[in-house]
Amino acid sequence: MRRWGSILQVSFTYVGTVVGAGFATGQEILQFFTRYGWMATLTIGIASVLFVWLGIKLMLLANVAGAKSYEDLNKLLFGERIGSLISLFTLISLFGVSTVMLAGAGSVFSEHLNLPYQAGLAVTLLLSYVLLIKGMNAIMTVNSIVVPLMMIFSCIVVWNAVNSPGSANWLLLETGYSLQRIWFAPFLYVAFNLTMAQAVLVPLGAQIDDRSVLFWGGLWGGVGIGLMLIAGHFALSAQMPGIMNYDIPMGQLVLGLGSLLPLLFVLVIYGEIFTTLLADVYGLSLQLEQRTRLSYKTIVPVVLLLSYGISQIGFKALISSLYPLLGMLSMAWMVMMMWRRTPSIRPN
Predict the structure, then answer these.
(1) Angle CA 161–26–217, to nearest 5
(2) DSSP state letters, 316-341
(3) Cα–Cα distance between 303 and 97 in angstroms, integer?
(4) Which of 85, 61, 58, 56 minimizes the C-alpha distance to 71?
């Protein structure tokens, strides 16, 4: 039972690290899959296979290398100099995403809970500090709560879409986009998400002794991501093309379904923002600990306070310029991950 509990924790942590706020709102699913019509069902299958294969491989490589942070793994993949540069760029990107996630948490409080924006920042900072100081075990526990909530929400929107007039759209929708763009989308999506997920998956892989737990956790985590992608695609396709006009498309799927579901949706959005913030600050702090020799417990509050300061003015312009470059680097990173031989899953 303890072993299965560990496998579930690894799988939930994997899902929670990849499935961020963009996924929960439905915007990522629309942009990378649903707008490409019926072929999105096939490209989601490709993405799911990649998440299973490369998620397992990432954690096993980290375990074999004894990687303390994603910088150690990048040096293994790219060599000392290039690996260090890629890790530095990833560090900057993680800080940018952390700032945006914190600002997003404040927005959830102000726009959906009718509470002050600053109260949302303060509550999120306090909870983040308490959990981050406890380390990986606390992050795994939070994901074990948030991810099942997200899965419940996915089931609800699918159930609601089954009897809608457009329920067959996921198999019938046509698209005007080029085949190159459609078939490149799942590779870019997986590469970008796994590059960012290194922040948690690398130290997670290094900390767990039993490699078979990492294997099964990565397998079920990748399958879980794939099922949630297809569930979101099915529900969103039923409302195409009108659903493309909304910033939070998933929010439109729960309108008119009583007061409980919209509240659940808000909790899911906040939970996904929160788990992304925890993952990014954790990975960022571990790398800064290696680079500066300051203690982890000293770095965490400094990173959180810096994120708080920048969240007052916003960080979206910088993120929009960083993401395309990170996407290109992510593809190079994924190719190197594919090239590396998969380590044995036998326990140490």
Answers:
(1) 95
(2) HHHHHHHHHHHHHHHHHHHHHHHHSP
(3) 12
(4) 85
Residue type present at position 146: V
Is 338 a residue whose pLDDT tops 80?
Answer: yes
**Among candidate residues 230, 173, 206, the one with its CA nearest the CA of residue 51:** 230
**pLDDT tens, residue by residue, 86-97:** 888 888 878 877
Euclidean distance between CA atoms 167 and 245, whole angstroms: 19
Rounded Cα distance between 174 and 176, Å, is 7
Q: Per the structure block, which two tokens stand in for 1?
A: 């039972």
The pairs formed by 302-309 with CB atoms below 8 angstroms and a separation of 24 or more are 303/95, 303/98, 304/125, 304/128, 304/129, 304/132, 305/125, 306/95, 307/95, 307/98, 307/99, 307/102, 307/281, 308/102, 308/121, 308/125
Task: Answer for the pair 113, 269: CB distance below 8 angstroms, yes or no.
Answer: no
The number of residues making up the chain comes to 348
DSSP state, 157?
H
Cα-to-chain-centroid distance, residue 266: 18
**Residue in 227, 220, 205, 221 with CA at minimum distance from that of residue 342:** 205
Prediction pTM value:
0.85
What angle in degrees, to the nearest 10, is found between the helix axes of 2-18 and 40-65?
A: 120
Task: Give yes or no for a contact between 285 and 95, defined as CB atoms under 8 angstroms apart.
Answer: no
Distance between CA atoms of 17 and 86, rounded to whole angstroms? 20
Largest CA distance in the chain: 59
Residue at token pair 């929160």: 274
Q: How far apart are CA 53 and CA 219, in angstroms?
A: 8
C-alpha–C-alpha distance, residues 113 and 125, integer Å: 17
Q: Are 204 and 59 in contact, with CB atoms under 8 Å apart? A: yes
- What is the tens place of the pLDDT at every residue in 270-307? 888 888 889 889 988 988 888 887 898 999 999 999 88
**253's tokens:** 């799927």
CATH class of the domain whose range is 9-339: mainly alpha
Query: Which amino acid type is present at position 87?
Result: S
